[in-house]
Write a structure and sequence with these properties.
This is 26S proteasome non-ATPase regulatory subunit 10. It is found in: Cytoplasm; Nucleus. InterPro entries: ANKRD_45/46/60, Ankyrin_rpt, Ankyrin_rpt-contain_sf. Its main location: cytoplasm. This protein has two domains: 81 residues, Ankyrin repeat-containing domain (Serine Threonine Protein Phosphatase 5, Tetratricopeptide repeat, Alpha Horseshoe), CATH 1.25.40; 127 residues, Ankyrin repeat-containing domain (Serine Threonine Protein Phosphatase 5, Tetratricopeptide repeat, Alpha Horseshoe). It has 13 helices and no strands. With 210 residues, the chain is mainly α. Helix 6 runs antiparallel to helix 7. The chain is elongated.
Length: 210
């Protein structure tokens, strides 16, 4: 168990709790990454900042969300972590939860004010990510939290374009049922139907035209 040794070291030298390594990461970053909830609790009880940023602007919440550390995400949110913090790629913790299929974490983030339409530096939203990866329940969850279906990334693609391109037929159908347009063109002047393969385009047209 790492906690007793770490606790002893920190109590002897308080500065260890906030010391940063060469990547500007603190003990809080590392304990979130490794999933050591007891160390996270210990550090936060000592009063360390909850949202320090490393050299690429990842907060402990970004790391915990990306690594799938549900209990730690819950603790960080309860301690006031910024759910819409952005790193150097413009990504929020929700972007990582969406692309890595972390359903419970995404739910906690959304219920605590995470913006479902946050755009990263490529203008990609969590819905773009979940749709392209085929994370059906996450697509559903984002839509329940009123994620916009027709936002376009830098390539002009909507989440539906990406779902069609990756042959995510269930996700594509759900998006169209929830109002995603089959007519928006991307930068290559292609609609989602023109990107769709096999019989998917026809299915989507049927849903859209009711």
């Amino acid at each position: 168990d790492a906690l007793p040794i770490f606790r002893q070291e920190v109590l002897l030298n308080k500065s260890l709790a906030v010391t940063t390594d060469q990547d500007n990461r603190t003990a809080l970053h590392w304990s979130c990454s490794a999933g050591h909830k007891e160390i996270v609790d210990f550090l936060l009880n000592l009063g360390v900042p909850v949202d320090p940023k490393d050299d690429v602007d990842w907060t402990p919440l970004h790391i915990a969300a990306s690594a799938g550390r549900e209990e730690i995400v819950k603790v960080l949110i309860a301690r006031g972590a910024q759910v819409n913090a952005v790193n150097q790629n413009g990504c929020t913790p929700l972007h990582y939860a969406a692309s890595r299929n972390r359903y419970e974490i995404a739910r906690m983030l959304l219920e605590n004010g995470a913006n479902p339409d946050a755009t990263d530096n490529l203008h990609s939203t969590p819905l773009h990510r979940a749709s392209s990866k085929g994370n059906y329940r996450l697509v559903q969850l984002l839509l329940e939290h009123n994620a916009s279906t027709n936002l376009q990334d830098l390539e002009g693609n909507t989440p539906l374009h990406l779902a069609c391109d990756e042959e995510r037929s269930e996700e594509a159908q759900l998006l169209v049922e929830k109002g995603a347009s089959i007519y928006i063109e991307n930068k290559e002047e292609k609609t989602p139907l023109q990107v769709a393969k096999g019989g998917l385009g026809l299915q989507l047209r049927r849903i859209a035209e009711g």
